[in-house]
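CORE FACILITY INTAKE
Project code: CF-77B
Contact: R.S. (postdoc)
Sample description: multi-component assembly, three entities in total
Requested service: structural model of the whole complex
Turnaround: standard
Below are the sequence entries exactly as provided by the requester. Do not edit them.
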Amino acid sequence: MAHHPRIPKLTRRALMKAAAAAAAWQLAPRGLTRALAAEPVRVGFDDTLTGTYAANGQNTLVGCQLAVEQINASGGLLGRPVELVVEDSTSGDAGTAVQKARKLIDRDHVSFLIGNVNSALSLAIGQVTNEKGIVHVVPGGHTDAITGSSCHWNVFRVCNTTQMEAAAVASELIKIGKRWYYITPDYAFGHTLQDGLQKEAQKLGGVTAGADLTPLGTTDYSSYLIKAQAANPEVILFLVQGADMINALKQAVQFGLEKRFHLAGSQQELEALEGLPPEARVGTWVFEWYWKQPDVPHLAEFVATIRKKTGKVPTARTWQGFASVWSCALAARAAKSLEGVQVAKAMEGLKLPPEVGLMPDPPFYRPGDHQLMPTLYVGQAQATGSDPEDLFHVARYLKGPEIAASVEQTGCKLTWPHA
Amino acid sequence: MAQLVLFDAFNGLVVGAFYALMALGLSLILNLSGVINFAHGGFLAVAAYLAYTLIPRLGFWGGLVVAPLLTAGLGLLVERFLIRRLYGRDPLYSLLLTFGLAYVFEDGTRVLWGAQALPYPVPPSLSTPVSATLFFLTGYRVFMVLLVAAAVTALFLVLARTRLGIRIRAGTQDLETVSVLGINVRVLRNLNFGLGVYLAGLAGVLAAGMLGLEPTIGSSLIMPSFVAIIVGGLGSLPGTLLGGLLIGVASGVTTVFFPSATEAVIYVMMAAVLLVRPHGLLGDAARIR
Amino acid sequence: MSRLERHAPAFVASALLVTMPWWLQAAGGYTELASRIVILGLAAMGLNFLLGFTGVLSFGHAAYFGLGGYGVAMTLRYLVPSSAVAILVGVLAGTVAAAIIGALIVKLRGVYFAMVTIAFGQVFYFVAFRWNRVTGGDDGLTGWARLPVGVGPLTLDLRGSDLAFYYFVLALLGLSAAAMGLLLRSPFGRTLLAIRENERRARFLGIPVERHIWLSFVVSALFASLAGALFALLNNFIDPRALRWDQSGNFVIMAVLGGMRSFWGPLVGAGVFVLLQDLISTRTQSWMSFVGAFFVLVVLFFPRGVLGFVRRRPAS
C-alpha cells in the first residue's frame, strides 16, 4: 500500500456502535412479544416477492396469510398462536433463497417452511430444509424432480408435476389436431413438460411438427412464430410461462395466428391471462385451480374473503399458499407435535378438508412421493366472462390420481432419518 | 427455407430497429457525458407505465406523445440533481448511481402499479397483419419501424442542423473547447441527457405494445443496447444504429438454423468485433480511451 | 510509523473476523451470514485489487466469481468428490477466462472498458443459462454438496458444521489477504499504483502498462473466482445469477462503500452491504428501493467509503 495511516479507535467504536444499533433494531420488536405472549409457532415463507415471479409469489403470500389468520381463529396450533415470517427469496437468486432459508431456520426457529414458486429455488431450499430436518411444503415449483428423483422425506408439494399437466391437456388437444408445434422455455420445467406432452401425444397418435427452445426472458417471439407457421402444425403449444407467455401470446395474436392454428399449451395461470389484452386471451390450457367451480362448498366464502382483502379474485397461487400452510397445521395437529419426522409422517396421506381443499374431490398427499393429488382443470381462455375476472372456461375436471405417473415412475425413493 | 430466412431477416430488421432506438438514447448520453446510464431500462419502464395510465384519458396516441415527454422531464431532473454532481469524478460513480436508480425504478413501478402484468391496449387498427403471407408484419410493427425511422431521422436532423445538435456533436469531440467558447456545458449535458431519455421513453411506449407490461420490462432490454453500441462503434451514432439493426437481423436469421443460439449470436458478434476492431465497426479509434 | 501502528489494521480485522460468528449473532445475524460476508468480501477485495489499486473499473467480475462457482459445482457433481479439487478447478476456470478476456480488452479504458467487461460478463451468464445439459441452466446445478476437507488425520467437517465452514473460509481469506498484501507491497504492486495515479507518466517511464493491467486483471479475477468457489460451497448450489451484472455491481458498491483506497475497505463494505440487505429485506418487500437509494446516497455523499471517511479525520 502507498501509506499506512493509523486506524484510529474510531473505526472499532464505529463498528461496535453499528453492531449495537443493529442488534437493538433486531431484538426490540421480537423481544417484547416474546416477553408478553406464548411463544408462537413460526412458519417461514421463503418465496419470490420481487422480480419476474413477483406476482405469483405475492399471491401465494396472500393465501398463506389467510391460512394463518384462520388457524389462529380456530385455536392456533397446539395451543400456541401461529406467526408467518416472510422473506423474499428474489425471483432467481438462489444464494439469497438459501440464505433466507437458513436465516428462517437458524435464527427465527421456524417449524415449517413454505417455498418456492421457482422450481430451481425450491430444490435449493429443499436441500437446506432436509439438512435441518424441517418440514417443507412447496406451493408452486413444478419440476418433476421435487417429488421425483430429488425427493426428500421432509418435502411435500402442492402444485402439479409437469407430467400431470401434460397428461391432463393431451387428450383435449388431440381432439383438435395431431400435428403439434412446441414453443418451449429452455429450462427444466420446459424440457420435462415438452417431454411429457410428446409422450402423451405419441400414445394418442399425435406427431411433433417441430419444437423451439426459447431462452427465458425472451421478449421477441416473432422469429419462433415465423418458424412455427412455416411448419404448418394444427396446434401451436406455448409452454412458456409468466411474462414470456404474455409476450408470446400477445405477438401470436397480433400476427393473426389464432385464426389459422389452434393456440394452446399446458400450464396456464390467471396472472398471465390478466396481463394479456382481451383479444389475446385465447387457447386451450390446464389450470391448477380456478375460482369459479360450481358446487364446491366453501369456495364462495374463500373467493369473497380474498376479494375483500386484495380487490381481486384468488388465483391458483393464492390457493396453493393457503393449502400449504393449512397442511402444516393439520398434520401437526394430527401428530400432536411439531417435530419434523412426526409431522411428515402425519402429512403422508393427509386429506385436505373441504374448507381447505376447495376442489370437487378432497386432495391428498401421496405417501410414496409426497405429491398432492388434486383436481386439474382443462378449458379455454376467454376474453371475459360473467365477471371481468372470469377469464377461463373450465371444460373438464380431471382427477389427479388417475393421470399422475406412479411413484415408481417418478423415481422417488424416500429415505427417513434413523429414529 | 429461403422464404423462411427472408422472413426472419426482415423481421430481424424490425426488431433491430427497436434495439437501435434504445441504444441510440444510451449512446447519446455515453458520448457526451461519459455516463453509462444503467437506469435506461428503468426510464423505459416508467414511460411504458405512464403511457398505460394516461391511455384511458388521452387514448393510445396521446399516451405515445405525452409519456416519453414526461419521462424526459424526469430524466432532466435526475441529471440535474443526481448525475451532474458526478461529472468531475471517476466514471465509476455515475455507473453506480444509475445502477442504484435502476433498482429504485424497478421497485417503484412495482410498488405503484403492482407486480401483476398489465394488459396494454393496442388500437385495433394496428393489431392486424399487413397481409396474409407477410403475417409477421403486423400493423403495429410497421408503425413501429416507421416511428423509429422518423425518430432517427429527426435525431440526425437535430444533430446536424440545430444549434443544440451542433453543440452536442462538438461537445462529444471536445467538451473543454466548447465550454471555453462560452457555451453553457451544464445545460448542454442536461438537455442531451433528456434527449437520450426521451428516446428510451419512446422505446418503452413502443415496447409495451409488443411485450407484457411488468416491472422488469426495462432490465430485459438493456443488454442488447449495450451490445449494439459496442458492435456499432463507441462514440458513433450511425454506428449504434447500424449495430442495432445488425444484431436484430443476426438474431432473426440465427433462429432458422440454430434456434438456441438466437441470443448468443449477438454476444459472439460482439466478441468478434472486439477482437478485430476494438473500437467497433464505425467507431472512432481515438475514443476508446 | 511504528510497526504496531502499521499492523494495527490487520490486528483489528483479525480480531473482529475470528469472533464474528458471536457478535454477529448478537446483532441479529447467524453464522451462515458471517460466511457470506467473508466470501463476498474476498470477491470485493479481489475486485479492488484492480479497481482501487490499479485504477481500472471492471463491472463484470461476477463472470469470474460465477466461473469459480460453476467449476466447484461441476467438479463435485460430475467429476471428483473432493472439495479441495473442486476449489482448484473453480479458481483455474475463472483465472484462465480472465486471462483470455483481459488480453482482448486491455486496449480499452474508462467507460468503454467497463462496458465491455459488462458485456463479457453477460456472455458467461448466457452460456451458463443456455448450456442446460451441463450447467443446469436457469435451474442451476444441484445434487451435490460440500464435502469434508482433510489432510491425513485432520478433517474439517464442512458439511455438518456451519462454524467449521466459516473458519475454513476465513482461513482462505487470510491467505488471500496475505498474498494480496505481499503483491501490493512488491515492485509490481507499486507499479500498479503508479499506473493508477498517472497512466501517461507511467507509460513515459517505459512501464509496459497494458501488461501490468492485464496481470492485475488476472490476479483480481483469481481471488474473485476463489470467492465464487466458496460461494458455491456455501449454498451447495450455483446458478447463473452469480454471473449476472447485478452481482458485479454489488462487488463494486462493496468496494466503494468500504473505501476503495483502503486494503480492508471492501471487506468492511461487504459486511455493511450484506447485513443491510439481510436486515432490510426481512422488514420490507421494497428492499430494492432501499438498496438502490443506498447506492445513490453512498455515491453522492460517501464516495470515499467508510474507511476512507474515517481516515480523513486524523489528517485534518
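Facility notes:
- Chain A has 16 helices and 14 strands.
- Chain A touches chain C through 52 residues (CB under 8 Å).
Invoice: internal transfer
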